[in-house]
Amino acid sequence: MLVKIDHLEKSYGSGEDRQPVLRGISLEIDRGESLAITGESGSGKSTLLHMIGLLDAPDAGTIQIDGERVSDLDDKGRAARRRSQIGLVFQQFNLVPSLTVRQNIALQARLAKRLDPNWIDMLTERLGLTAFSDRFPEQLSGGQQQRVAVARALATRPALLLADEPTGNLDEETSAQVLALMLELCADAETALIMVTHSIAAAELLSRRVHLTGGRLS
Amino acid sequence: MLTRIILAGLLLVTVAAPSLAQGFAGLGTRSEGFAVPVEGTEFTFPADHGAHPEYRIEWWYLTAVLQAEDGTPYGAQWTLFRSALEPEAGEGWSAPQLWMGHAAVTTPSDHFHAERLARGGVGVAGANAQPFEAFIDEWSMASATDRLSAGEDALSALDLTARGPDFAYQLSLDATGPLVFHGNDGFSVKSAEGQASYYYSQPFYEVGGTLDLPEGAVAVTGQAWLDREYSSQPLSENQLGWDWVSFHLDTGEKMMGFQLRQTDGSVYTSGSWISADGELTAIADGELTMTALETALVRGRDVPVRWRVELPTRDLDVEIEAINAQSWMPTLFSYWEGPVTISGSHSGRGYLEMTGYEPEGE
Amino acid sequence: MSLTVLLTLLSHWRRKPGQLATLLIGLSLATALWTSVQAINAEARASYDRASATLGGGALIVLTDETGAIPIENWTRLRRDGWAASPVIDGSLEVGEQVFTLRGVEPLSAAGPQTPLGGDGPGAAFLTAPGVLLAAPETAEFLSNSSLDLPPVQASANVSRTEIITDIGVAARLLDRGDFIDIITIDPEARPGLTPLSELVPELLQSSGTGNGEVEQLTGSFHLNLTAFGFLSFAVGLFIVYAAVGLSFEQRRASLRTVRALGAPVSSVIIALLAEVIALALIAGAAGIVLGYGVASALLPDVAATLRGLYGAPVSGELAIRPEWWVSGFAIATLGALGATAQSVFKAARLPLLASAQPRAWAMASSRRYVLQAGAAALLFLAAAIIPNVSSGIVAGFALMAAILFGSALLLPPALALALKLGQIATRGPVAEWFMADTRQQLPGLSMALMALMLALAANIGVGTMVSSFRLTFEGWLDQRLASELYVTTRDEAQSLDVRAFLEARSDAVLPIWSADTEIESQPGEVFGIVDHATYRDHWPLLVAQAEAWDAVASGEGLLLNEQTWRRLDIPMGTPISVGAGDSLNLVGVYTDYGNPSAQAIIGLDALTRRFGDGVSRLRYGVRVDPAEAAALTEALQQNFDLPANGVVDQASVKAFSLSVFERTFAVTAALNVLTLSVAAFAMFASLTTLASMRLPQLAPIWALGLTRSRLARLELVRAIVLSLLTWLVALPTGLILAWALLAVVNVEAFGWQLPMHLFPGDWLRLAVMAALAAVVAAALPARALATRSPRAFLQTFAQER
To answer: What are the structural domain ranges in chain C?
Structure first.
């Protein structure tokens, strides 16, 4: 058991504007498993992903990663788990524009002090980025940028890769390529993958799928 | 007495470089253009009591052995040196004359001193013959004309004042004997090479007056000795230093004597024996012996402060001892100058002056 | 970890070298201006210390004579009484085009360790003919190349550049002083004298003061002004830095968020931000200090000439590198940069991880922000209004100036926004309307640069007004003091009578300048008597006066008082003033009397002689004569009478000299003004360049609607000019209030007299033109880039819009 989520609740706003987003979510993900979370816009799927990615803290309920209860950690503790155990891939790629491809890929590994040049070289090659490694993000196409983001997220060999609509900004053909590579590399690194997507086609490539409606799993 | 040649000459050194490390040779050898003493020259008084700018160096040097009513011994010194930078005469600011004054009071426990520097030509320092006054700033050695009878020598009655940061004195001096002339009627040879000076003294002063000391004013009486000397020729270069004494003996006799310590280890001695009525006999080289008996540590140097002085031709064999071993003059050119007591074959009081005792390691 | 974050932060500059340059240049310019002013001040102070050291240092009593010359016997008398007195001869030695102060000292009596005979000094040669001249190395070289028959010159690092030191005998010969000296200094500590000075030398004036205190007091005003200028320049520079730091933070906001999401803790981010800013501050600080050194050494000769000419304060024209301004330069650069970064650090600490990742134009306009700024400005103005009432002193004066400046700076963006909104309402036509709205939208991006421009302009107006007012007033004062063509000082009363008779036959008027020492309203002071003559009525500026004031003085009933005394007494016109023992005279006017700490009054000549009889010093005259004949008369005087040194002073040359000194002061002020304005123009250029790249999407629709690129570019230029002129409008009152604060508050606090404020509208207009020019220069490159930009770039903005 890699991730164990128990009765997770989260609301945004306060007073009368208070909007419950997650209403008691329980979920378990095994090591190496891949899980798709689907749902309408506003169903709470991104919020759930942010909770698991330790970018935000829940109001109630618990999250355990690798047996450690991480939902109560302070900001510093969450940052430490984030950089060492979790990889993140966003819809907007979120590369640092002033760093080269190579530097972007190594960024998180450096922060986590887990730089393995051989592994990074392998990732770069597998993702077809070797020729671009000295370029800056703005000189790349969207698909290439997202592949850099995937490489960066996997550079620390995290136990868990979280992807939020990773193909949302890409065309169909590119989406399929990026997705396939991501799954393949996760399998090699024995990394569990949780991906939020609104695309059924994408979701079907993963081993398991849950659907979120109005803050509840169905 | 040679100290004085050095001191006057050192005015030059002082101006040329405050560092005195080069020692006594700093006097230089230059006498070109200046007048040179000539044997057989008659003195003319009162004119010769005043300054002789045509000679390179000159001084008015007075030492007094004093005591308070309670018997406490004191010593006082008043000195004015003149040094010409150039033989050419000049007026006002251009007068090439430098003046230096030293004054001191010695007590058994303290030694107070002061030093003044001034240029000539502008009335701040000088020596006038008529009426006689030697002065620098407010220090003055002046003829007390009200105490002089007609025809008497101008130096026979003097008023003397000097002041330092922590002392002052006002003394009246009245001579009970005549002026005496050293060497050959005042022509005093200073070395085998023939260097000489004009040199006369008034050793017969009876003194009264007041010393102003930090603990208060002290009324004193005693005896004093005035030296007048002028010359243009400096010392030989082979002299390390000297030890000089002046004695006021209880018999009424006076003695002046010195030894020059030379680089080859030998000494040259000379002096004058003055009878109570003022008759002077020169003391030849070798006649006088001075032996150091005891030294004291004075400002980092060993200085003899007890001496045996022997003059067999006068049956004199005495020990002299400093009243205050620390009678050091830390002036631009520093030396030891202080009162001594005399005991042995003769008794009395006197002054001792010593130069050339350098600190260890120099 | 912090290192990784720092390297990520720094990688931004590689992609945006222009921004890095802006930041570094802004910070180094600010540091440079600050450092140069500090360096000049430090050098001047060191020069005063050196000068006072050559006089003996410490608290000396200085004796002078009102005729300007002291017979040497006075000094001798003091020495013979036991005073540690030393004579000095001070005069001007003209060598070729240059004038040096020749100072003759008497080394044997001079107090203090700094006599020329010590150390590696010239020794006995100093005292023996032909003597030695000691001069700064530069001066020494100049002198030895001159054709004059001068004594040998020896270079000495202890002598200031405008000074030559020599033995008093040599000085007396070169200046032909005979048996007279100029100054006697006394070290009262060295030897307490026995007889009081007032008995020994009753005719000499005693300025018991600290040796250099007087010079410092007189030059204090000048240094205060320089410091104020340095402070303003630095504030201008700081705005640039603040803008650049803020911009760079906004541009890196997304990257910072990414780094945080990837697991960097807040502490690492803050450490990295601080390390970055300190590194930049050190680099920029070093560059700024070097630059400041250059500026200072370029300006110092003029400053030195000003100080020397105005106050007689000897200042070397050469700049030494002093550790104090290195330290102050680095400190100010680091503190300034840290201050400018504080907001970014604060934002970084609270940076939400999950906010929209969209890049945001930094500091979006909002009316709420304007209201806040206007409110803060109002608070600062309120503080400015209160400060003079609750506190006094120079610090309060500076606090007042700071409050006014920053208040106005804060008020600028809301005021501009309001003006543009009004303009929008008032204009017709779509392009004009769009222009106003678009300009208003750009305000936030430009406001920092505009604030810097505002400060520069205000400083320019403020300091310019102050210096010009000072100049006008000082010229008036010179006229008052130097209305006559010639001034004659005689040796004694007998000569005085002869000279007067001689002059009356050969001039238009002989105006006695007779005076008596007395008490004015129980304060020790001096009373002058004057004859009724048009010279006074036409030339003497009175600060306050009753009608017919001169008639009242002439009739012996009225009295004029100097400003300092009037301010101390705080009395209205018409008040009876007691002068010595006689009847009181009515106060009918007040005149300026700069630099004189004692009480002084002017009454009719007859009234003076009646009251004081023999107590009147009757030695001086002003002579009115056809200026063309002044030289001949001077020569005749000198041939017929044995007048003291400086016995005849000719007004024209003194005035010309004083005015040339002012020209130099102006050169310094003008140079600092231009530098400050350039800094502001650079700030504007940097902001416009940055905005230009961000603004393409906003301009593209207008271009698509049919405005040509060149028209758009022209509009950009117009926008810059409009904004800078609006800024100038705000700067004008700010600058005038600043000038008022300097003249009426700071000066009075510091020196006890007020300088009247004069207005120079011509200067303001010139400044407006300069502001517009600065705007054009700043906007030219971005506008040119816009005009020549390919249509494809415009089209792409539509495609790229997210």
So the answer is: 1-58+231-359, 61-209, 364-480+652-802, 481-651
